[in-house]
Amino acid sequence: MTSSMLLRYGMNPHQKPARVLMEEGELPFEVLGGSPGYINLLDALNSWQLVRELRALLGLPAAASFKHVSPAGAAVAVPLNEVERKACFVDDLELSPLASAYARARGADRMSSFGDWVALSDTCDLPTARILRREVSDGVIAPDYDPDALALLRGKREGSYRILRIDPSYEPPPIERRQVFGVTLEQQRNNAVLSAQAFERIVTKNRTLSDEALRDLIIASVACKYTQSNSVVLAHNGQVTGVGAGQQSRVHCTRLAAHKSDLWFLRQHPAVFEFRFAQGVSRAERNNAIDVYFLEELTPAEQVAWEQAFEVIPRRLSAAEKRAWLERVDGVALSSDAYFPFRDSIDRASRSGVRYIAQPGGSVHDESVIAACDEYGMVMCFTGLRLFHH
User: Fold this and answer.
1) Could you give the residue numbers annotated as active site?
2) Are residues 57 and 188 in the same domain?
3) Considering the chain, what percentage of its residues have pLDDT values greater than 70?
């Protein structure tokens, strides 16, 4: 390892020179393949923290799919059923626990995960590498790689695929610094622990929080901790199902996250598995076609591109059919990185099967938000932890 490394450029090609460095000691990672850039390293170091925390809190292998310093998806190793395997495009593969975690992380929002940075909590094994090998991805960070997995990944993108091995024992100093416009900002690192104890203060009439619901609240909350604020994250069955990142309004975060979560469940509709794609249509084009299938309206250009993806053009589901399918969804967990100022986010979340909510609390409208949760029979925890991330 080394204490510094030159980068091709910074956030944009005209931002040169650029490098990554340690003020003291050596870099906690080494490059095993490719040449990571500035944004790659932002994604790598943020995503590694996310999966490391999930692994420590839940005792399960964890994976994350990052784009532009926020997770498109994150998950722990909960086995996939046959429908989920098809929805994640991995029904033809043998999955290890780690591969199952990444299949879920990548599968929740496949459109956003196109060209992702991948973080793995455990040694990358061959089943996981096989998924990475065939997906459009920028790079991966993991504590280690099995030799056959590393050989496979080094052959990706003609050898330019970025592969980082991080020292799992590395702990950063308690104080972190950032320079903006020549001004240095300093703060204590966000070392808040989102263990089960953080969710003990239940403020609603419904106080029934199953082990599975608690697991999903932890997943959603840890994902919030590493998502650009404002943020709202939905999770179900061990995986993130929708992320609303970087919005200026809390309800817009909720709408975005809930819409993405709806798409995850709609992708499991039986009609999707009857699609007959035209020959030569790529995996990415299939992903896009499935998402477009659920849009209410298409432009003429979108309609032409969509029809060209199919050998036989499928019948579009009506709004009533989609609503009927989504009404079957229940038990979804939601975490917000700051309090809800109004009940509008609760009303929207209720339409996407949300049953469990975690938020810091502290709004002047807490009582009306709690009342809204009670109307829907939801369980809501006040964690007392704001999780802004910028």
Assistant:
1) 67-68, 230, 390
2) no
3) 100
- Name the burial class of residue 232, with classes exposed (0-12), middle (13-18) and buried (19+) by CB atoms within 10 angstroms of its CB: buried
Mark whether 186 and 306 lie in a shared domain: no
238-292 tens-digit pLDDT: 999 999 999 999 999 999 999 999 999 999 999 999 999 999 999 989 998 999 8
Q: Are residues 342 and 372 in the same domain?
A: yes
> Both tokens of residue 170?
């590395």
Using alpha carbons, select from 388, 386, 333 the residue that is nearest to residue 360.
386
Q: Are 34 and 57 in contact (CB under 8 A)?
A: no
Classify residue 325 by burial, with Cβ atoms within 10 Å: 0-12, 13-18, 19+.
middle
pLDDT tens digit string along 294-325? Answer: 988 888 988 888 889 999 999 989 999 999 99
Number of domains in the chain: 3
Of the candidates 176, 217, 173, the residue with the CA atom closest to the CA atom of residue 195: 217
Give the helix/strand (H/E) hosting 74.
strand 70-76
Element (H, E) at 356: strand 354-359
**Can you tell me the distance from the alpha carbon of 233 to that of 108, in angstroms, rounded to the nearest whole number?**
12
Residue 269, classed as helix, strand or coil, is coil
